[in-house]
Amino acid sequence: GIQVEQSPPDLILQEGANSTLRCNFSDSVNNLQWFHQNPWGQLINLFYIPSGTKQNGRLSATTVATERYSLLYISSSQTTDSGVYFCAVEQNNNDMRFGAGTRLTVKP
Amino acid sequence: EAGVTQFPSHSVIEKGQTVTLRCDPISGHDNLYWYRRVMGKEIKFLLHFVKESKQDESGMPNNRFLAERTGGTYSTLKVQPAELEDSGVYFCASSRELTSGGHSYNEQFFGPGTRLTVL
Q1: Contact criterion met (CB < 8 Å) for B33 and A90
Q2: What are the chain A neighbours of B95 within 8 Å (beta carbons)?
Q3: Average pLDDT over residues B91-100
Q4: pLDDT tier at B39 (50, 70, 90 boundaries)?
Q5: Mutate to test the interface with B, among A95, A97, A98 (most CBs of B within 10 A)
Q6: Were B111 and a residue from B4, B27, B55, B103 both cysteine, which residue would form a disulfide, CB within 3.0 to 4.6 Å?
Q7: What is the pLDDT of residue A15?
Q8: Run of H or E residues at B53
Q9: What confidence tens digit (pLDDT) does each residue in A73-84 have?
Q10: Which of B5, B32, B106, B117 to probe the A interface (max A CBs under 10 A)?
Q11: A43 touches chain B (CB under 8 A)
Q12: Torsion angle, CA of B79/B49/A31/B113, rounded to 10 degrees?
């Protein structure tokens, strides 16, 4: 099956810093989503981004489907950004395959 | 519009007992999915309903797990008998496939999850 790899696995930032999280996938996909799992364990939709670039406040994401990767940018990070960020991809059968996640810790 | 809801939020049971998790999808969403995250590992797909039919249950770990979606609305996931390795967070998601410009969109919306602890 399709492989989804996220990097880095762990990231520690000082508040105010910028970061880039990467998601590589091994096959063509129909859809890609980025999620943030907050400290309470809830999965929050960040972006639905099968291709192109989207921005939402301090967050933006870019997916280059032809090169099989997606990037999540976090600018001016805040302590509330801490948590695990998951990338998930969907092929033709509608179930999503998740990466192992990037654990982000933002220190005050 | 209400989001995906799951009940209970937490469940603590003993090995050998039975637990039933419930998921209410977003109204109008035909697709319903179950996923789980076990022991801090990656989130894995369990199964997919389209309305009341099981579209794909290839991720179900074994026959101790039974999912139903009677009437194509809410879904239940029963674990019987529960084992220690079943502990984890069980997520439900729903979606409504849309087509625009020849491309299909199937954004999945996740519920808050049920944290299951088997002692």
Answers
A1: no
A2: 94
A3: 86
A4: confident
A5: A95
A6: B4
A7: 96
A8: strand B53-56
A9: 999 999 999 999
A10: B106
A11: yes
A12: -40
